[in-house]
Amino acid sequence: MSTDGQPHILAIGGGSFVPDGREGLAPSPLLRYAVDLTGQDRPRVCFLTTALGDGAEYVSRFYAAFAALDAEVSHLALFPMPNVADMRAHLLTQDLVYVSGGSVANLLALWRLHGLDAIMREAWEAGVVLSGQSAGALCWHVGGNTDSFGPQLRPLTDGLGLLPYSCGVHYDSDPQRRPLLQQLVGEGTLPGGYAADESVALHYVGTEFVQAVSFRQEAGAYRVEPDGPGTAKETRLEPRLLASL
Asked: Of the candidates 245, 226, 227, 225, which has an alpha carbon nearest to the alpha carbon of residue 237?
């Protein structure tokens, strides 16, 4: 749980991990920021790789990367069956839940099938910090755009809705992301929301956006809002620069 008693979400547009110099990955300043939000000296961190199909290789790589943190790390898998007897009890005892990228459509379908949608809301309301990258950022919002259905991006409108906004991820690295999000917001398919470049995270307390953070000087965050019939406007939000590793 966060020591301040507030519900926090850190939605990462890309860049949760960085190369560790040994052909592996290490937590980036964004992930360390998520850990710091817990306020705990040695937080309990649970990661989920549902969006990647819970492949053993992915789980092993995440454990190796999280080993750089002074944390008690566990994972929750749904394939081929839940690896935790009581998922609700396990998640409610965590300080931070981190969700990987991958297929957000598959993630949402499986979470709803297993009742994790309701459990995640309960955990968030109880003060467990929620975070994740790409699919793991989109899922907390009303929706965004996704490559879950193929290389041509499509709208996603059935996110968990803990945050009443649309969300854009990989905003500066995928040329389809920005124009499609603006189109979807402009035509009313999605509500106004926020977007993040690579190496940028969006920090919400409750349902309020409080700041963007980044470890890359030129990276940005953006507010995307309806601006008349069928159009949207985008306002750049300067992230707070985090110290590099």
From this structure: 225
Topology of domain 8-241 in CATH is Rossmann fold (3.40.50)
Confirm whether 8 is a catalytic residue: no
- Tokens representing 28 are 């980036």
User: Strand pairing of 221-226 and 193-196?
Assistant: antiparallel
Per residue in 21-38, pLDDT (tens digit) is: 787 889 999 999 999 999
Query: Among the options 170, 199, 203, 214, which is catalytic?
Result: 170
Answer whether 0.90 is exceeded by the pTM.
yes
Summarize pLDDT for 97-146 with one digit per residue, the tens. Answer: 999 999 999 999 999 999 999 999 999 999 999 999 999 999 999 999 99
Q: Among residues 16, 28, 134, 214, which one is catalytic?
A: 134
- What residue ranges do the domains of the chain occupy? 8-241
Nearest to 166 by CA among 232, 100, 108, 238: 232
131 is catalytic: no
